[in-house]
Amino acid sequence: MNILLIGNFAPPFEEENLHNITLYNRLVEDGDECTVINISKHPAKDPVFINPNGYAGYLLTLLRLAWKKDVIHFSTKGYLRVGLLKMMLSIFVAKIFRAKSIVTFHSEFFSILGQMRSPFGGTQTLNTSFYLADSIIFADKDTYDVATMYQKRANFELVPSFIHTSHRPAERETPLYRKLKDIRKVIVFTNIVHDSFLFEILKEMIKSLIPSEDAVLVISLSGGSSQDLKKQIEASSGEIKDRLIFIEQDDVQSALSVFSRADVVLRPLTCDGEMFFEKFTVSVRNILHEGNTTFFPNSLVFIKEGNSAVLCANIVKTISSYEDGTPTGINIQDPYERIRKIYGQ
């Protein structure tokens, strides 16, 4: 099968781009011909991923690569106007080239902003896309339910986002993976920048962590002053300095190792690689592990009002103490095979 994947494939890494990379890797392993267009504002590191410049560059690249494709699969979080226009354009091009058009909506703010689209632009874009696409995949039940506002259609599918690590121990068990393997609680902070609400919560987590507690904080930093930020964090860590693990925000293998062991992941809100509302919002994801596959069944968004970092840190500690549970209303059985089935329908 000849497949064109379009979405965020660039660092800093989180569940969206790691899912997209996982899907690409699995398809290539199965012998499919895959081409990738990266729509993130950041360039993808893998040289086989194509980074078009601007909207015109995206259009020209899409037209060039869509030729003789069986499937054009666009992935997004779905709340940037430019991203929605690119999504609709990918569907139109798929129709022109007689390819199957697939869209995936990753979980984030679509369940809120999808209800606030202007009736003179955004609503028509979504209605048109939902009508013309062959299949629309939603990663969570809430996003699926909001999408039914635009008329429930037979082409809607519910398939969770996932990250897959190799079943081969030599590939999966990196030094970082082995270091985290026997830790009871692994709490991950990704894409931290100065003056962010996420940084405030991290500082409170460091203060509240007991030296004898079987837990680690895994941290990735973003921005040009990341080294200064790292020094600040280390200076404030005191007795728990050895419980802090720093990883590079563009190291995909480290990100996969960390996510495969994580209990909770905190990060800023992002869409198509662009950070939003970092001064007063934080996304919190609870992690479910099934074999070599990682799922993200439950999540919260913290919105800062007053001095709420301590409250949020306590909530995160409570969440990290819960045992893994099966998410309600979604089937986690082999989502990759379900996507392949959608491709072949």
Q: Strand percentage, roughly? A: 15-25%
The count of helical stretches stands at: 13
Unreliable sequence segments: none
Spatial arrangement of strands, main beta sheet = 3-2-1-4-5-6-7
Q: What is the CATH superfamily classification of the largest domain?
A: Glycogen Phosphorylase B
Order of helices and strands: EHEEHEHEHHEHEEHHEHEHEHEEEEEHH
Could you tell me the mean pLDDT? 88
- General form: globular
CATH topology of the largest domain: Rossmann fold
Structural class: alpha/beta
Q: Quick one: biggest sheet?
A: 7 strands, parallel
In CATH terms, what is the architecture of the largest domain?
Answer: 3-Layer(aba) Sandwich
Structure explained in plain terms:
The protein is an alpha/beta fold. It has 2 domains: 2-160 and 331-344, 3-Layer(aba) Sandwich (Rossmann fold); 169-321, Rossmann fold (3-Layer(aba) Sandwich). It is built from 13 helices and 16 strands. The strands form 3 sheets. It has a 7-stranded parallel sheet, with helices on both faces. Strand 15 (281-290) and strand 16 (293-303) form a beta hairpin. Helix 2 runs parallel beside helix 3 (81-96). The radius of gyration is 20 Å and the shape is globular.
